[in-house]
């Protein structure tokens, strides 16, 4: 799960302190930092970039829950963008195949491909073995998701 790996990233565990201790440069905060970084862990977590990454990961988890409930995703959703990138590269992908590119269950992957079909980005078909397969309706150019 992404949020977990993010936390691991923030809670750097390697004790490789070297040089004199550095203290957080945020006004009013005097906590020692790790690896001579300019900010303590608490203040790193408050940075806009880190908050944005966390926000994106939360948005992605929310979209996955939507897929689990069989709800199709809107054009501008994060996972639709990721699936389009996979299709742009491969032109064709099966529901199980998509789970090798995006961390989804088979069922979530199926609903995601149906979302793409609903927006006209792919055509769906079952292959000889009955596996749902999406074929891109676009070539070199990724579809413009800002268009209505
Ligand atoms: Zn601090």
Coarse structural class? mainly alpha
List each distinct ligand once. Answer: zinc ion
Give the strand content.
5-15%
CATH topology of one domain: Arc Repressor Mutant, subunit A
First-last Cα distance: 33 Å
Shape estimate: elongated
Please write the string of helix (H) and strand (E) elements.
HHHHEHHEE
The CATH class of one domain turns out to be Mainly Alpha
Widest beta sheet: strand line-up: 1-3-2
**CATH fourth-tier homologous superfamily of one domain:** Winged helix-like DNA-binding domain superfamily/Winged helix DNA-binding domain
**Number of DSSP strands?**
3
Helix content: 40-55%
Task: Tell me about the largest β-sheet.
Answer: 3 strands, antiparallel
> Do you know the CATH architecture of one domain?
Orthogonal Bundle
Tally of alpha and pi helices: 6
What does this structure look like?
With about 150 residues, this protein is mainly alpha-helical. The protein has a domain at about 70-148: Winged helix-like DNA-binding domain superfamily/Winged helix DNA-binding domain (Arc Repressor Mutant, subunit A, Orthogonal Bundle). About 45% of the residues lie in helices and about 10% in strands. Strands 1-3-2 form a 3-stranded antiparallel β-sheet. Helix 4 (about 80-90) crosses helix 6. The longest helix has 21 residues, at about 50-70. The two termini are about 35 Å apart. Zinc ion binds near residues 31 and 40.
Task: Characterize this entry briefly.
This protein is mainly alpha-helical and 148 residues long.
What's the helix and strand layout?
Layout: H1 2-10, H2 41-45, H3 48-68, H4 78-90, E1 92-94, H5 95-98, H6 106-118, E2 122-126, E3 132-136
Zinc ion is lined by residues 24, 26, 29, 31, 39-40, 42-43.
